[in-house]
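Reopening this one. Same input as before:
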Amino acid sequence: MQKSALRALLEAVQHGQLPVEEALNELRDLPFADLGFANVDHHRALRVGLPEVVFGLGKAPEHIIAIVRELRDKGHCALVTRIDEPKAHALQQAFPEIELDPLARTAFLKLGPIETRGNGPICVVTAGTSDLPVAREAVVTARAFGNEVIELHDVGVAGLHRLLARRQVLYSASVLIVVAGMEGALASVVGGLVSKPVIAVPTSIGYGASFGGVAALLSMLNSCASGVSVVNIDNGFGAAYSATLINQGALL
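Same output, byte for byte:
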């Protein structure tokens, strides 16, 4: 339950517009609903300002569908990450209105327009086109949470002039998410250009000595640009979540 919905519920009881028993019925599944195979956390939006998100990897399609239905029925939008094509198809069959992004491997069931909030746009920057799947996960997540998002792609250090030509885009952002594989140097470059927080996302893109993203991870962790924070390898979702807390922190 969102804070605004709970406030409206309590005010309705206070003004005699809603019987106490009906209000209790609305609150019966707080703090969570036990589905047997999952405990769906309906209290999370009240605690941290953002609802639960469903991690699809490893879950059976029928379990994902049940969790999404539970979230929807309690008034939450439902974002599912890391789904393959069969799971995406199953979700679309169950919820024809769901928005699928095959590149991001996400599904998003929204309940009406998403209110845009925050101090400004989040800019998602990629080093190369191969980093797009992780970047798209960040973009979809950030937009689902009500952020304005701008994208800047294929501006890695192999052609630094491409990034410098778009530096005004970097300056316009309130938070930046930098997605890069190989040696992960782009995060340090962007961190040295802007006065806003930079969240670096190492990707598993690269040849053998990149060790599946470990080289980029270590490079980003050792960045000499002071404003750079780092999330786990390929974790576009985590970067967008952190960026949202920075961008909307006072509003959540």
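So the earlier flakiness isn't reproducible anymore. For the record, The longest helix spans residues 61-73.
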